[in-house]
């Protein structure tokens, strides 16, 4: 493939996340958007009133007929991904699909089978794994482990202000739940640093609408040939009024900690005596999510050039995501009593 190849994209879905696409795509000369699609006629009409060189359509079939893109980007709500993919897969073109690929384990297994039958390259957009602080420490991890030892533990806190007084904001309902939306971000991040990640158990708290708004999941992972030597946990919460994402990586051999501050886009080294030193700082350079999607689209461009996908990585993440429903310990919002659901 010519390294200067230009791929013509069609974006399906004009939701909030696509606001971060446009500045990110400007940094990838090999990608250009030639058409968009959304089932909301008002969004389509509004788009066409201001964008004459990139038309919008209500139907995917019309989009493909008129602009014939080289690849698709799916940015519709998670619950609609499976249905949208049924329309796109027969075209046999590469697809960048927003995370999570589906909102249920059954849909995920069926989608995987269809992808393999169609022999289509599908790349899942795990945008949190492309944050600058994550990429920086991933690049330097071996160097730091020479002095700090192996990662022996982790904790991830991914908090979003999507609920108050037990009620979700209207725009959050399309995100399904705090575990499905925020949990997949944490999983895709921590999986970059540890191997053989296995779920031990999960704790879910539901709101009055039976939606998971708080989750706490514990894991084991491999260290030096021991597949279960490490321990870690992930917490997600929509009801604290916080917009906060942070990952702690612990090194028991030396007592140090690496802190990946996803909001402030920086990496800190915490000494045993709790002194803090900033190792890398990307704050102020650009929007956090724009930076994420620069990485997502750069990675998508590489996959398009090579004719590859990230389905092995996606299988690992989705297996853990949906396994949490098989090992839950839930808090019933009506009785306020814990109920084991093993």
Automatic annotation (TrEMBL):
Q: Which residues form the Gfo/Idh/MocA-like oxidoreductase N-terminal domain?
A: 7-124
Q: Pfam families in the record, alphabetically?
A: GFO_IDH_MocA
SUPFAM superfamilies registered for this protein in UniProt? NAD(P)-binding Rossmann-fold domains
Please give the PANTHER family that the UniProt record associates with this protein.
BILIVERDIN REDUCTASE A (PTHR43377)
Q: Any idea what this protein is called?
A: Gfo/Idh/MocA family oxidoreductase
Species source reads Roseofilum casamattae BLCC-M143
